[in-house]
Design goal:
Elements: H1 3-6, H2 8-18, H3 20-28, E1 30-33, E2 36-50, E3 62-70, E4 75-78, H4 80-87, H5 91-107, H6 109-123, H7 130-136, H8 139-153, H9 160-180
Antiparallel strand pairs: 1-2, 2-3, 3-4
Helix pairs in contact: 2-5, 6-8, 7-9, 8-9
The structure holds zinc ion.
Zinc ion (ZN) binds near residues 54, 78, 79 and 82.
């Protein structure tokens, strides 16, 4: 099954997180290097490492690649250390944080889908199978699950106690649903 269908909420969270990249790049603005004005065009992770193209650096291999462009259209592919130094902004750290958040969302994908499902069921009063959720989860519990989902949405890991609570609820809901099937 394609990932989009199996983990739709997770895919949406990843897309939302991706939206932060162009916003961040725009916020960086331009910076000066060797009497030229440069802007960051994009960042990507290279499978095979390259050499940093800043004269006098040549650091190799770099896998986190930052493409910068000057006003004449000259482009350079440079590494973490140089982009941070030239821009005088902690760009390398921002992208390292981004990568960690993205990995967390992927890692938490099963929990994201289940917790989202529980919240949706709780909020929906119509369908019979949702009764199991309403019987098993208190409103305080749902509020904790909402906070847990918000943490996972932005790439944080769930609070361990809340995750235990979620696992407990999942077990109860599964039992309740089994019990109500004729
Ligand atoms: Zn460099």
């Amino acid at each position: 099954m394609p990932r989009e269908l199996k983990h739709p909420v997770t895919v949406q969270f990843l897309k939302d997180l991706e939206q932060s990249i162009p916003r961040y790049i725009k916020a960086i603005g331009s910076f000066q290097h060797e009497n030229e004005t440069w802007t960051l065009i994009k960042h990507y992770t290279a499978k095979r490492g390259l050499s940093c193209q800043i004269v006098g650096c040549g650091h190799t291999p770099i896998k986190d690649i930052y493409v910068i462009r000057d006003s004449h259209g000259t482009e350079l592919k440079i590494g973490n250390i140089c982009i941070t130094k030239i821009s005088n902004q902690k760009i390398g750290k921002w992208f390292a944080d981004y990568k960690r958040k993205s990995q967390n969302i992927r890692k938490n994908r099963a929990m994201i889908e289940i917790v989202d499902g529980i919240i949706r069921s709780y909020d929906c009063r119509d369908i019979r199978e949702h009764d199991a959720v309403r019987r098993c989860v208190s409103w305080q519990g749902i509020e904790r699950l909402r906070k847990m989902l918000e943490r996972m949405r932005i790439g944080l890991n769930p609070n361990p106690k809340t995750e235990l609570l979620a696992r407990y609820y999942i077990k109860r809901i599964v039992q309740a649903m089994k019990a109500q099937t004729p």
